[in-house]
Specification:
CATH architecture: Up-down Bundle
Radius of gyration: 18 Å
Distance between the termini: 32 Å
Number of domains: 1
CATH topology: Glycerol uptake facilitator protein
Structural class: mainly alpha
Order of helices and strands: HHHHHHHH
């Protein structure tokens, strides 16, 4: 039995569903993660720094389990670009994914403002006063490289425990936030920074939270591709990054 080639309409529908899954995951990330920052600011006895980091890690973990099989669960423009750099994702899909991620992040930030006001600038990412610009860039590049290294390993190498991808990636987000949160906000994600910045007009050094994560994610993906042992697997036939 020969499979029927997809029609243009079904292809468009599939792309929209993938972008929709990306939007759900990114919305959850910003609403829960940045919301946790605002709650920790107003009620420090209930949720401290460790609690905020746990929320970021947990929301990433559950959203990967929920949508990874649909869209690849990028939730992050830097991850999307990095997958395209290593030819695990189609460049023509990159603008669609990033547009969906930014739109969802913006919607989540607006909802947070409705619920919580502008407490803690809704988790807008800013660098610690003690850090120089070069140090802040170094922190964001390094943390995002760690994150993308793990994502590339569990998403593109069939020898990895793929069914534990959500746990591995969520754990990476949590430990990066534990270390880097007090320094740069440990964004690692332009969309996560974009939503709160747009809603609260907190644009100080915002370019850093685009350039550094994209550079770091690309470096992390390329590093894993370089050090991996065994047969190099071809890019998937579809456009799913699958993380």
């Amino acid at each position: 039995m020969t499979a029927t080639p997809p029609t243009p309409d079904s292809t468009v529908s599939e792309r929209l569903r993938k972008v929709g899954a990306e939007m759900v995951g990114t919305f959850a990330l910003v609403f829960a993660g940045c919301g946790a920052i605002a709650v920790a600011s107003s009620q420090p006895d209930i949720m401290g720094h460790g609690g905020v980091c746990a929320v970021f890690g947990l929301v990433i973990m559950v959203m990967i389990f929920a949508t990874g099989h649909i869209s690849g669960a990028h939730f992050n423009p830097a991850v999307t670009v990095a997958f395209a750099v290593i030819r695990r994702f189609s460049w023509r899909e990159v603008p669609l994914y990033i547009a969906g991620q930014l739109l969802a992040a913006t919607a989540a930030a607006f909802l947070l403002r409705f619920v919580l006001g502008t407490e803690a600038n809704l988790g807008a990412t800013i660098t610690a006063p003690a850090l120089t610009l070069a140090q802040a860039v170094t922190v964001e590049v390094t943390l995002t490289a760690f994150l993308m290294f793990v994502i590339t390993g569990v998403a593109t190498d069939s020898r990895a425990e793929g069914h534990l991808a959500g746990l591995a990636i969520g754990g990476t987000v949590a430990f990066c936030a534990l270390m880097g949160g007090p320094l740069t906000g440990a964004s690692m994600n332009p969309a996560r920074s974009w939503g709160p910045a747009l809603v609260t007009s907190e644009w100080a050094q915002h370019w850093l939270y685009w350039v550094a994560p994209i550079v770091g994610a690309s470096a992390g993906a390329l590093l894993y591709q370089w050090i991996r042992c065994g047969r190099t697997e071809p890019p998937p036939s579809d456009t799913t990054g699958c993380c």
